[in-house]
Amino acid sequence: MSGLDELLAAGRRAHEQLMLDACTISRPGAVTLDRSASVLIPGASATLYSGPCRLKPQRVPRNEEAGERLTVVARYEVALPFASLATDSLHVGDTVTITASGDSRLVGEDFAVMAVDFGSTATAWRITVEAAT
After folding, report:
1. 105 vs 76, 81, 92, 109, CA distance in Å?
2. Is 100's pLDDT higher than 90?
3. Which of 123, 114, 3, 122 is nearest to 62 (CA)?
4. DSSP 13
5. pLDDT of amino acid 133
6. Could you tell me where the DSSP H helices lie in the chain?
7. Is 51 exposed, middle or buried (CB count within 10 Å of its CB: 0-12, 13-18, 19+)?
8. Separation of alpha carbons 127 and 81, rounded Å
9. What is the pLDDT of residues 46-65, one digit of tens each?
10. Which of 51, 69, 71, 50 is nearest to 61 (CA)?
11. What is the mean pLDDT of residues 2-29?
12. What is the pLDDT of residues 69-99, one digit of tens each?
Protein backbone atom coordinates (compact mmCIF):
# COMPACT_ATOMS: atom_id res chain seq x y z
CA MET A 1 0.00 0.00 0.00
CA SER A 2 1.44 3.38 -0.98
CA GLY A 3 1.56 6.44 1.26
CA LEU A 4 -1.41 7.98 -0.56
CA ASP A 5 -3.42 4.76 -0.26
CA GLU A 6 -2.74 4.69 3.49
CA LEU A 7 -3.81 8.35 3.86
CA LEU A 8 -7.00 7.73 1.87
CA ALA A 9 -7.86 4.65 3.92
CA ALA A 10 -7.35 6.62 7.14
CA GLY A 11 -9.43 9.53 5.79
CA ARG A 12 -12.23 7.18 4.75
CA ARG A 13 -12.30 5.55 8.19
CA ALA A 14 -12.37 8.98 9.86
CA HIS A 15 -15.17 10.19 7.56
CA GLU A 16 -17.25 7.12 8.36
CA GLN A 17 -17.05 8.04 12.06
CA LEU A 18 -18.88 11.29 11.18
CA MET A 19 -21.74 9.36 9.57
CA LEU A 20 -24.10 9.45 12.54
CA ASP A 21 -27.27 9.38 10.44
CA ALA A 22 -28.70 6.32 8.69
CA CYS A 23 -30.56 6.15 5.41
CA THR A 24 -32.08 3.85 2.86
CA ILE A 25 -31.69 4.46 -0.85
CA SER A 26 -34.36 2.96 -3.06
CA ARG A 27 -35.50 2.94 -6.66
CA PRO A 28 -39.19 2.91 -7.51
CA GLY A 29 -40.46 -0.07 -9.44
CA ALA A 30 -42.09 0.10 -12.84
CA VAL A 31 -45.49 1.78 -12.93
CA THR A 32 -48.39 -0.18 -14.40
CA LEU A 33 -51.75 1.05 -15.61
CA ASP A 34 -54.91 -0.41 -14.13
CA ARG A 35 -57.10 0.06 -17.21
CA SER A 36 -60.34 -0.78 -15.41
CA ALA A 37 -59.84 2.03 -12.86
CA SER A 38 -57.70 4.28 -15.09
CA VAL A 39 -55.06 4.70 -12.39
CA LEU A 40 -51.32 4.24 -12.34
CA ILE A 41 -50.08 1.71 -9.79
CA PRO A 42 -46.50 2.11 -8.60
CA GLY A 43 -44.36 -1.00 -8.58
CA ALA A 44 -42.48 -2.27 -5.56
CA SER A 45 -39.36 -0.28 -4.70
CA ALA A 46 -35.95 -1.95 -4.74
CA THR A 47 -33.60 -1.13 -1.86
CA LEU A 48 -30.13 -0.23 -3.15
CA TYR A 49 -28.48 0.74 0.14
CA SER A 50 -29.28 0.79 3.83
CA GLY A 51 -26.76 1.99 6.35
CA PRO A 52 -24.79 4.91 7.73
CA CYS A 53 -24.75 8.29 6.06
CA ARG A 54 -24.21 11.96 6.76
CA LEU A 55 -26.68 14.60 5.59
CA LYS A 56 -25.67 18.23 5.49
CA PRO A 57 -27.15 21.25 3.74
CA GLN A 58 -25.45 22.90 0.81
CA ARG A 59 -25.32 26.62 1.41
CA VAL A 60 -26.64 27.69 -1.98
CA PRO A 61 -30.43 27.28 -2.13
CA ARG A 62 -31.92 28.10 -5.50
CA ASN A 63 -35.16 29.84 -6.40
CA GLU A 64 -37.66 28.19 -8.72
CA GLU A 65 -40.95 29.40 -10.07
CA ALA A 66 -43.91 27.07 -9.78
CA GLY A 67 -46.75 28.69 -11.66
CA GLU A 68 -46.83 32.21 -10.30
CA ARG A 69 -45.29 31.29 -6.99
CA LEU A 70 -41.61 31.58 -6.14
CA THR A 71 -40.25 28.72 -4.06
CA VAL A 72 -36.82 28.08 -2.60
CA VAL A 73 -35.35 24.63 -3.24
CA ALA A 74 -32.72 23.58 -0.74
CA ARG A 75 -30.08 21.09 -1.75
CA TYR A 76 -28.27 18.72 0.55
CA GLU A 77 -25.22 16.50 0.38
CA VAL A 78 -25.50 12.90 1.49
CA ALA A 79 -22.18 11.21 2.22
CA LEU A 80 -21.98 7.42 2.20
CA PRO A 81 -19.04 5.16 3.01
CA PHE A 82 -16.69 5.29 0.01
CA ALA A 83 -17.13 1.64 -0.97
CA SER A 84 -20.84 1.37 -0.15
CA LEU A 85 -22.31 0.95 -3.66
CA ALA A 86 -21.15 0.03 -7.12
CA THR A 87 -20.79 3.13 -9.30
CA ASP A 88 -23.58 2.04 -11.63
CA SER A 89 -26.00 1.27 -8.79
CA LEU A 90 -27.32 4.79 -8.24
CA HIS A 91 -29.30 6.97 -10.65
CA VAL A 92 -30.77 10.44 -10.68
CA GLY A 93 -34.34 10.07 -9.38
CA ASP A 94 -33.60 7.41 -6.79
CA THR A 95 -34.91 8.20 -3.30
CA VAL A 96 -32.88 8.69 -0.12
CA THR A 97 -34.94 8.26 3.07
CA ILE A 98 -33.40 9.27 6.39
CA THR A 99 -34.11 6.44 8.85
CA ALA A 100 -32.14 7.68 11.89
CA SER A 101 -30.62 11.02 12.82
CA GLY A 102 -29.54 13.12 15.76
CA ASP A 103 -31.98 15.68 14.30
CA SER A 104 -35.32 13.93 14.77
CA ARG A 105 -36.95 16.31 12.25
CA LEU A 106 -35.09 14.50 9.47
CA VAL A 107 -36.28 10.97 10.27
CA GLY A 108 -38.69 9.79 7.59
CA GLU A 109 -37.81 12.61 5.20
CA ASP A 110 -37.38 11.66 1.54
CA PHE A 111 -34.86 13.26 -0.78
CA ALA A 112 -34.52 12.84 -4.55
CA VAL A 113 -31.07 12.09 -5.96
CA MET A 114 -30.05 14.96 -8.23
CA ALA A 115 -26.37 14.17 -8.88
CA VAL A 116 -23.82 11.52 -8.02
CA ASP A 117 -20.27 12.77 -7.43
CA PHE A 118 -17.13 10.75 -8.04
CA GLY A 119 -13.49 11.32 -7.14
CA SER A 120 -10.49 9.01 -6.94
CA THR A 121 -9.19 10.67 -3.76
CA ALA A 122 -12.56 11.19 -2.06
CA THR A 123 -13.02 10.06 1.52
CA ALA A 124 -16.76 9.42 1.05
CA TRP A 125 -19.19 8.93 -1.78
CA ARG A 126 -21.16 12.16 -2.10
CA ILE A 127 -24.64 12.48 -3.54
CA THR A 128 -26.52 15.74 -4.13
CA VAL A 129 -30.18 15.51 -3.16
CA GLU A 130 -33.24 17.77 -2.91
CA ALA A 131 -36.27 17.40 -0.70
CA ALA A 132 -38.71 15.12 -2.54
CA THR A 133 -42.07 16.63 -3.36
Report:
1. 15, 23, 24, 8
2. yes
3. 114
4. H
5. 64
6. 3-17
7. middle
8. 11
9. 999 999 999 998 866 565 66
10. 71
11. 88
12. 666 678 899 999 988 876 568 889 899 999 9
